[in-house]
Design a protein that fits this description.
Layout lengths: L1 E6 L2 E6 L6 H8 L3 H16 L5 E2 L11 H12 L16 H15 L8 E4 L1 H13 L5 E6 L5 H6 L4 E6 L9 H7 L4 E7 L11 H18 L4 E5 L22 E6 L12 E5 L6 H14 L7 H10 L6 H18 L11 E2 L9 H10 L2 E2 L1 E2 L9 E4 L4 H6 L1 H12 L1
Parallel strand pairs: 3-12, 5-6, 5-7, 7-8, 8-9
Antiparallel strand pairs: 1-2, 4-10, 9-10, 11-14, 13-14
Length: 414
């Protein structure tokens, strides 16, 4: 049977034939709350006007790139008459860019790194997918603290792995070390952490990370194969109140770090990231060779040439993070005024407050939506009872949303 329906101004033929795999069809049905809220925001803005909708759903960095990015692009344009100006390069990236990035990462991670320990990828997402393709066998488990970035489950599942979330401590989202320890078993192949955390805003301490490393040492010996510690660090540069992100690469031989330049250089659409391995890892050359291969065979081939050249010229530059600090203060004021309980984020550009009055997070997000405030339920991040707000929007929008947040919170309590 064939029937027609109009969707997004296009005629789509719906049939009883299954064009998608069951896995992807199911994933679409339970797809990311972030995408759903973003699409809801488009409709609300059409109905009420953009200025009357307070959209905190999408973590899309809105600051302009630093001046070094513009200068680099102008230099690239001037060089385009050279042969192979934007042609293929080694799958791991331009050697000179890898060497320059290794030097920067060595400073951040407090350990020696060479270009051979770093590959350039299509964003941090490309780095993680290439890593999991290289090390996971079907049925392997990847443990992660919750709340966690929503795509981790897909990245792990792409290669037959299973994501195994472990709840962090309420409100502060500090690691529950004992629970992490208990979650690791014979099938565990990796533990992935994200610090500063999306959505929790927590920065894991040096003491916490040392405890995680000790646990992995113990379980790696017991299992007879490495358990990787994967540190996902796209927000490393963005912390507040003097907080710093401790280096993790030297803590444990099987540590790898993934990152990107989407936030600090405002290059989200250019898709440039990296994966770096601890040089002390046994067989590190074989490991890097494997990840370089998977970077290729997954279809990434190499990170964008323009983005790599921009990165090399702009290393050490970043957006004006003080703008995010002011927005954080404005959001904290709005939430406090509404009587909503939260932990002040130490990093990144998200709040993850508690739904008032013990309300279901989806129900409260619906109450916010009735006030034209768009948030994302914590259930989508593996942590029900909370909700996420981004503050990568104009400060004026945050300040004007305060009465609407207060009305939604009052409705929750009422």
């Amino acid at each position: 049977m064939v029937r027609g329906s109009f969707t997004h101004d296009r005629m789509i033929l719906e049939t009883d034939m299954q064009v998608l795999s069951k896995e992807i069809a199911g994933a679409i049905q339970q797809s990311s709350w972030i995408r759903r809220m973003f699409e809801t925001g488009i409709e609300l803005k059409k109905k009420f006007g953009t200025e009357n909708v307070y959209d905190f759903s999408l973590g899309n960095p809105d600051l302009p790139p630093p001046a070094a990015v513009k200068d680099a692009l102008q230099g690239i344009v001037a060089s385009l008459d050279q042969p192979m100006a934007l042609g293929y390069m080694p799958n791991g990236g331009y050697p000179y860019v890898r060497a320059a990035l290794a030097k920067e990462l060595a400073r951040e991670q407090a350990c020696e790194l060479g270009g051979e320990h770093v590959i350039l990828t299509c964003g941090a997402a490309g780095a993680l997918n290439s890593l999991f393709r290289a090390v996971l066998e079907p049925g392997d488990e990847v443990v992660c603290p919750a709340p966690y970035f929503v795509e981790y489950g897909f990245y792990v599942g792409n290669f037959g792995g299973v994501l195994k979330p472990v709840l962090s401590r309420p409100l502060t989202f500090e690691l529950d070390i004992a629970a992490l320890d208990a979650a690791i078993g014979p099938k565990t192949r990796a533990v992935i952490i994200n610090s500063p955390n999306n959505p929790g805003g927590v920065v894991y301490s040096a003491e916490e990370m040392a405890e995680v490393a000790a646990i992995l040492e113990k379980h790696t010996k017991a299992n007879g194969r490495p358990i990787f510690l994967v540190s996902d660090e796209p927000y490393r540069f963005l912390t507040y109140d003097g907080v710093t992100v401790p280096p993790v690469l030297p803590l444990y031989p099987y540590t790898v770090v993934a990152g990107s330049f989407s936030k600090n250089l405002a290059l989200a659409g250019e898709r440039v990231g990296y994966l770096a391995a601890n040089p002390a890892m046994p067989d590190v050359a074989a490991f890097m060779g494997g990840v370089t291969m998977t970077n290729r065979i997954l279809g990434f081939v190499n990170a964008p040439a323009i983005g790599q050249k921009v990165l090399a010229a702009a290393l050490g530059s970043e957006v004006d993070a003080s703008i995010y600090a002011r927005r954080r203060d404005a959001m904290a004021k709005a939430l406090t005024g509404a009587g909503i309980e939260f932990s002040l984020p130490k990093g990144a550009f998200y709040f993850f407050p508690k739904a008032p009055n013990g309300l279901d997070d989806k129900v409260f997000v619906d109450l916010l939506m009735h006030e034209n405030v768009l948030a994302v339920p914590g259930s989508g991040f593996g942590y029900p009872g909370y909700f996420r707000l981004t503050f990568c929007v104009d400060q004026d929008i945050i300040e004007r949303s305060a009465p609407a947040m207060a009305r939604a919170a009052a409705a929750a309590r009422g």
